[in-house]
Design goal:
Chain lengths: 113, 113
């Protein structure tokens, strides 16, 4: 158990819909990273938050957004969903930011039908 | 930009065989290097890491040495077991990119009894 909790584990939704994925980092970790894992793109970095502030953006679509709340949990919002958004979404947390070790949650498997 | 290249899989070995999975990287500055493992249906787990040149990371019989001169971080294990069957990801992170992980494409290892 990494100490990082992601909910829900599975999500099936229709095209055009909006979903919210939730991540609770390990106790004491200030950084949260979101990644997307798909068969064709592999593991891609989406966005990084540190202590409530956005620090870096990767290949994140405009239809996607995220935030980190004062209690440090984070949410990834995906809207106007398309079939191609079907993927495994991971969050990871670390104590600070930089070259420190990151701990991954079990992921949320999103299926868009 | 920074990138990681891994040998393509799948790699199929018999139990007790020697394992090498090649990983090379391109990065500015001095990244930290990681190997993560993903067992079927699970999230990513840190297997080992190295934070500076010539460091050797090791865990559960796996080893990798940070070679700056060849920009490589090859994963090795002297005697694989069926339970090592998983997908292995090489990754790097650095202060210059806020610590986000840049992953290789992953290598699937299948160990047969």
């Amino acid at each position: 158990d990494s100490g990082v909790t992601q909910t829900p584990k599975h999500l099936i939704t229709a095209t055009g819909q909006r979903v919210t994925l939730r991540c609770s980092p390990r106790s004491g970790d200030l950084s949260v990273y979101w990644y997307q894992q798909s068969l064709d793109q592999g593991l891609q970095f989406l966005i990084h938050y540190y202590n409530g502030e956005e620090r870096a953006k990767g290949n994140i679509l405009e239809r996607f957004s995220a935030q980190q709340f004062p209690d440090l949990h984070s949410e990834l919002n995906l809207s106007s969903l398309e079939l191609g958004d079907s993927a495994l979404y991971f969050c990871a947390s670390s104590v600070a930011w930089g070259s420190t070790e990151a701990f991954f949650g079990q992921g949320t498997r999103l299926t868009v039908v | 930009g920074d990138s990681v290249t891994q040998m393509e899989g799948p790699v199929t070995l018999s139990e007790e065989a020697f394992l090498t999975i090649n990983c090379t990287y391109t990065a500015t500055g001095y990244p930290s290097l990681f190997w993560y493992v993903q067992y079927p249906g699970e999230g990513l787990q840190l297997l080992l890491k190295a934070t500076k040149a010539d460091d050797k990371g090791s865990n559960k019989g796996f080893e990798a040495t940070y070679r700056k001169e060849t920009t490589s971080f090859h994963l090795e294990k002297g005697s694989v077991q069926v339970s090592d069957s998983a997908v292995y990801f090489c990754a790097l992170s650095s202060m210059s990119n806020t610590g986000k992980l840049i992953f290789g494409q992953g290598t699937t290892l299948q160990v047969k009894p």
